[in-house]
From TrEMBL:
It comes from the Bacteria. Belongs to the EamA transporter family. It holds the Pfam family EamA. This is EamA domain-containing protein. Residues 119-247 form the EamA domain. It comes from Mycobacterium celatum. One of its GO terms (cellular component) is membrane. The keyword Membrane applies. Keywords: Membrane, Transmembrane, Transmembrane helix. The chain crosses the membrane at residues 29-49, 56-77, 83-99, 119-138, 144-166, 178-201, 207-224, 231-248.
Length: 249
């Protein structure tokens, strides 16, 4: 994060200048809030996974990540069609299943789901869900500027936390190259997410974006040769069905 966040800020700043658009106070406000929410969510999520069972933390946070923007979208008056609504329900089940680890995993036996882990998990899931809501509020005419202010504010927070906790040490060699690659992927993903949220309903766009764990599982299978549990395989099938139903609406 010490490398990828500031590098992504530079990338997004260059893209924002190229895309043009005014810098309204709304772009600074909503973009900065989105960046801080995302950074805090990542921080709490990593803390929860390091102390508790990943098989519980990951799917619970993922479901909250998907549920929060859907609830806000409906509260704001969005009414997805019947097909899309069924797809959303299937997608939430898919998110839960894809993020579920094997119950026989060593992590479940050595890490307990304590009250502290529970609060960290809920906080991370809600923070991730608020990301979509906050970014959706950014002025469309400002184009990519909200993303720049998001990564800039998140970088300030990450640097402050690293300095305060004595973790201000940059990686070298392979970890550094991977962090630079992550910054480029993060830039592309944020631009795509902003365009989707501005072009579609908050409830539907955020739900499709929340299915990203399926891509992580596929990459883990192909690159890391990891084995997929039956629950994860079922979740991936449900995810494909859900995507078809939501996009067909």
């Amino acid at each position: 994060m010490l490398v990828s966040y500031p590098v992504a800020s530079v990338f997004l700043g260059l893209l924002a200048v190229h895309a043009g658009g005014p810098i309204h106070p709304g772009a600074i406000l909503w973009g900065s809030l989105y960046g801080l929410s995302q950074a805090i969510g990542v921080w709490w999520f990593y803390a929860a996974m390091s102390s508790g069972p990943i098989s519980v933390v990951s799917p619970l946070a993922a479901v909250l990540n998907a549920a929060v923007p859907i609830a806000v979208g409906v509260a704001l008056g969005e009414r997805p069609g019947e097909t899309a609504s069924v797809g959303v329900v299937l997608a939430m089940i898919a998110v839960f299943l894809v993020g579920r680890e094997s119950p026989d995993d060593e992590d479940v036996r050595t890490h307990r789901f304590t009250r502290r882990v529970a609060w960290l998990t809920v906080g991370a899931g809600v923070a991730f869900g608020l990301d979509f809501v906050l970014l959706h509020q950014a002025p469309v005419e400002c184009r990519l500027w909200p993303l720049f202010f998001a990564r800039a504010s998140a970088s300030v927070l990450v640097f402050a936390v690293a300095a305060a906790t004595g973790n201000f040490q940059l990686p070298t060699k392979t970890p550094l190259r991977l962090a630079m690659t992550a910054a480029a992927l993060d830039t592309f993903a944020n631009v795509a997410m902003l365009m989707a949220l501005h072009a579609w309903l908050l409830s539907l766009a955020s739900m499709l974006i929340s299915l990203y764990p399926a891509a992580t599982v596929v990459l883990a299978m192909v690159v890391l040769r990891e084995r997929v549990t039956r629950w994860q395989a079922t979740g991936m099938v449900l995810a494909m069905v859900a995507v078809a139903m939501i996009t067909a609406s």
